[in-house]
Amino acid sequence: MAEWLYEAGIGEARAALVEDGEIIQARIERDGDGPRVGAVVAARLVEAGRGGKGALVVLDWPGEPQATLAAVPPATSTGARLVVEITRMALRERGRDKPARAVLAEPDTPLADGPDLRARIAASGVAVTEVRPTGPDLLEQAGWSELVDRVRAGHWPFAGGALWVDATPAMVLIDIDGDGDALALAKTGGKAAAAVIRCCDIGGSIGIDFPSLPDRTGRLAIDALVDAALPPPFERTAVNGFGLMQIIRRRERPSLIEQIRLDPVATDAALLLRQAERAGGTGMLRITARPAVIDHIAANPAWIDALQTRTGRRVELAGDATIKGAGHAQ
After folding, report:
1. Is residue 305 over pLDDT 80?
2. Model confidence pLDDT, tens digit, residues 57-98
3. Are 46 and 58 in contact (CB under 8 A)?
4. At a CB cut-off of 8 Å and minimum separation 6, what does 67 contact?
5. Which of 24, 117, 204, 323 sits CB 3.0–4.6 Å from 29 for a disulfide?
6. Are 169 and 76 within one domain?
7. Counted domains in the chain
8. Does the residue 272 lie in any domain?
9. What is the SS3 assignment for 58?
10. What DSSP string runs through 276-317?
11. Final residue of a structural domain among 222, 241, 256
């Protein structure tokens, strides 16, 4: 029976949909991600675009992030105050960031935050179990750290082969690698690729590189397999003779791939704070990590306060340039 595991961590909330002891969906939501999808936010128009299209607003939000606006009435002048609804969160990509997307809110719509991670998984109708640092580490038992390591490496083994997954500015690319019969490898790899897409909530443009399948019957079988394995809605091309399929899925939030791989400092900080919450002992709680991670934690004093409150221990931060990995807390 499936259940969601939810943990309100320091600086990061995390959730995993677990079925038969395996994580089949994983989600994280970090402090500072910006307004969520569905948030209704006051804003100021800074660029009107052409003919009311391609407008840009500054949101009344910590850090004053920007958002693109699908359209504004042509007579709207720069500097006008607006109320907008977020339709896609800000995204981080290699070498650049994309601002959030928004539309004008309906008149008299009250300002509001969009539903958070806890609310979204509750709305799925699947039972939710709260994971607490003083209880069994159900997330770890389900393979949370192993999942994070796979996302970091972009390497997902499966029986008879492995996937290599990389997020480029154009699309997420999934390469199916292995030996043996090409059709058998394509089928097993296709199921594994669909599972990764679902697990990591990969949206936008996705390319899957299957083994070359010159036989049309085999290619049609792969098309049908992806249709059965990947939850709708999505659009796709047929597998071509070179083994390439392109999939388009709705992209409202950053995927787990983008969050973990493209922001390694925030990823290590969240893992380290999680470790610190569960560290046993008394007295000083010393957190040691490479300087960039320590600086990231130090820049958020509310995290340190929360950690001291939850553990009942005073926290000390120590930067060490020789540290490998996320660091340690003890």
Report:
1. yes
2. 999 999 999 999 988 887 888 999 999 999 999 998 777 789
3. yes
4. 43, 56, 57, 59, 84, 86, 90, 99, 100, 101, 102
5. 117
6. no
7. 4
8. yes
9. strand
10. HHH---SS-EEEEE-HHHHHHHHT-HHHHHHHHHHHSS-EEE
11. 256
